[in-house]
Design brief:
It contains 13 helices and no strands. It has 2 domains: 48 residues, no CATH class; 237 residues, MetI-like (MetI-like fold, Orthogonal Bundle). The radius of gyration is 27 Å and the shape is flat. Helix 7 crosses helix 9. By secondary structure, it is mainly alpha-helical.
Length: 311
């Protein structure tokens, strides 16, 4: 190419780059305009309340009384309080038992509903029903079913001679924890099932057909095709449900109020008791914030795991 050709094309190249740069600026500005309502909402509805609550946890604020800044005083007091550590252990136990059980039952539910069944849509609607019922209705129903006098569970067990006297479902430590976990599982399993079912339906049928032709059995097809395909869905559902379960309040409060002898006391119920019964708002917020580092680490790990798989 001659010198004259270079001199002619150079202004065109400059204009092309300038036009592209202007277009990128316009696109970036449009993106900021579109996302700004969400950012403003998050700042007003999420960031400000959280920052305000976090600051309150560093004060001796009581309901109806102005608070003074005391630094880490509330957190140091919690570290010396046996009830707080008992609530922490109960929270971990309650969440772990519920999540593991919901994941197993949800997987079974999804695998069954993914088969060709008679009245398939009806079964899917019925099994999703526990998720749609208001929590308070579910809890009050189970409270009646757990009752030592006239409860459905004791009546059925007595009529079939499985037990000789009524079981106190909510009055003993082990029974109470198992009972609240079962209510959470009954309510939360459909969320796992429907989410995992969506992941299963996204798997091409050709993969199963090819594996079957190659001689893979049912377990091998599940282990090498199904599990890898729904792993990310299962991880996301587990994280979301872990957050919900760790903050569950209505089920435990209505059934046991943290009893008997604080054996079902968790972060949410202890926070409520401290804030609204003991009127110690600063200490109550410190209790609720104690679980935040665990949730941040969980979300950070899951995000890194998903991004690493996609890269």
């Amino acid at each position: 190419m001659s010198i004259s050709d270079t001199s002619v094309s150079s202004p065109l190249v400059k204009r092309s780059w300038k036009s592209r740069f202007d277009l990128d600026q316009q696109t970036a500005f449009l993106g900021l305009v579109l996302v700004s309502p969400v950012v403003v909402y998050l700042l007003i509805a999420q960031a400000y309340p959280f920052a305000s609550a976090a600051f309150t946890s560093f004060t001796d604020k009581r309901i109806g009384v102005p608070g003074e800044f005391i630094g880490l005083g509330n957190y140091l007091e919690l570290a010396k309080t046996p009830l707080f550590w008992q609530a922490a252990r109960n929270s971990v136990l309650f969440t772990a038992l519920a999540i593991i059980t919901k994941l197993i039952l949800g997987m079974i539910m999804a695998l069954v509903l993914n088969q060709k069944l008679v009245l398939q849509n009806l079964w899917r609607a019925l099994l999703f029903l526990p998720w749609t019922i208001p929590t308070i209705v579910t809890v009050l129903t189970f409270q009646w079913m757990y009752s030592s006098t006239g409860g459905v569970f004791n009546y059925l067990l007595l009529q079939t001679d499985v037990i000789q006297r009524p079981i106190d479902w909510l009055g003993t430590p082990m029974n109470a924890m198992i009972s609240v976990v079962l209510v959470n599982v009954w309510r939360g399993t459909p969320f796992f099932g429907i989410s995992l079912l969506g992941g299963l339906q996204a798997i091409p049928a050709e993969q199963y057909e090819a594996a079957q032709i190659d001689g893979a059995n049912v377990w091998q097809r599940y282990w090498y095709i199904t599990l890898p395909a729904i792993r990310d869905v299962a991880l996301l559902v587990t994280i979301v449900s872990t957050i919900w379960t760790l903050n569950d309040f209505q089920i435990i409060w209505v059934l046991t109020r943290g009893g008997p002898a604080n054996t079902t006391q968790v972060f949410s119920t202890l926070t409520y008791t401290t804030a609204f019964l003991n009127l110690d708002l600063g200490l109550a917020i410190a209790i609720s914030l104690a679980a935040v580092p665990f949730l941040v680490i969980l979300i950070w790990w899951a995000t890194r795991y998903v991004l690493r798989r996609e890269s």
